Amino acid sequence: MKINIGKLTIGGDYIPIQSMIKNPVTEVDKTIQKIERLANIGCDIIRITVPDETAVSGLREVLKNVTIPVVADIHFDYKLAIMAIEAGVHKVRINPGNIGGEEKVKKVIDCLKEHNIPVRIGINGGSLPKHLKEKYVDNVKTMLEAAKEEVGYFDKYGYDKIVLSFKSSNVLETIEINTLAKKEFGFPLHIGVTEAGDKIDGTVKNSIGVGHLLLNNIGDTIRVSLTAPEEDEVLVGKKILESVGRRSPELEIISCPTCGRTEVNIENLVSQVKQATNFVKLKQRIKIAIMGCVVNGPGEASSANFGVACGKDKSIIFKDGKNLKNVNNTQILDELLNILKEYY
Length: 344
Ligand code: SF4
Fold this sequence. Notes:
With 344 residues, the chain is an alpha/beta fold. The protein folds into two domains: 3-243, Dihydropteroate synthase-like (TIM Barrel); 251-343, 2-Layer Sandwich (Sulfite Reductase Hemoprotein, domain 1). The protein has twelve helices and 15 strands. α8 (199-215) links the parallel β9 and β10. It starts with a strand and ends with a helix. Bound molecules: iron/sulfur cluster (SF4).
């Protein structure tokens, strides 16, 4: 089943990357600038929390000034969901379990119908309904039953523009619940390991959880949740999609791990090239190799479009498998960035 959100589709071959704004939406200018920056590095959909009516005013301003679909994140108060929909969001994320009963969920559904936008029903392992927890005990079973109950409201009132998410901070549980959900429901799945930790922990957990699911053809949109800036969430999400073959890398940097032979600070060099290429739009896909020595470097980097094999004082810049020139080590970065310009 495919769901449209703005001009995007969730449930097709393309897997949209999502992130969530970490500052209050009342910081309107900051939010707008951040969203555009995130869109430039590959964020497809942005979620914004709407905790009160002041946030709705901020949201209204933001919506006028951004180019990617915006999802309003709503908890507890159905009126905020209605206000966000009326403000023009492209999707709302609610947890019907904490919206306050069937009558209020129905009001949200009526408003969704009127504005013809989708909803994400978010089932979170950390906030499951008490009556189901007592009945089923097992977390995965409880999440699945919670989803059935909540989808039931939408079934009853005839609305099926639904994306489902099942979030757990446990990788194996995330895999299990989404695998079961794919069999149980026909709706697109928003996947990710939630509360996954800092950049390193969260990257590993999401790479395994989201990566495993995508390799098994489960998951239609992803969010990598990290205790780190939004940019990192998008870049890690992009790398996961590239690694499982669901997104073609525009630019790939291969670099050696360095060893006792290394003569140049490769870590620095990689980070500088990466930074310089973050916002660049390229004419074609390219691979840049940054290697720490002239012994193995050129051979190991032969599949790259261009790159460098570093030496003690001078390094070899190579392009299309041939040595292009020798340069002083102080000039490596400039030489690489100059060649890169040919691909803009
Ligand atoms: Fe060491 Fe050279 Fe291999 Fe880098 S390319 S890890 S410097 S041998």
